[in-house]
Amino acid sequence: MTTGDPPETMSSAMVPHFRLLAATIGDWLSDQDFDARPDCPAAVDMANRQWDDTWGDPTVELVMDAIPRLAHVADHLHAYAAIAADEHATFSGATILRTMLVSLGSVYWQYELTVDTRERIRRFYALRLKSLAEEQNLVAVPGLSGGAESLGQLAGTVDAIRESGERAGFRWEQRTSRFGASVGQLDSPAPSDQALIAGLVESPGSSLGVGATLFRLFSAVAHAQPHGMRFFMHQTDEAGPNGGELVFIGLDPGWVTMLHTTAVSAIHRTVTGICGYLGWDQAEWNRIAAPALMEARSWPT
Question: What is the domain partition of the chain in residue ranges?
Answer without folding.
Answer: 2-117+190-296
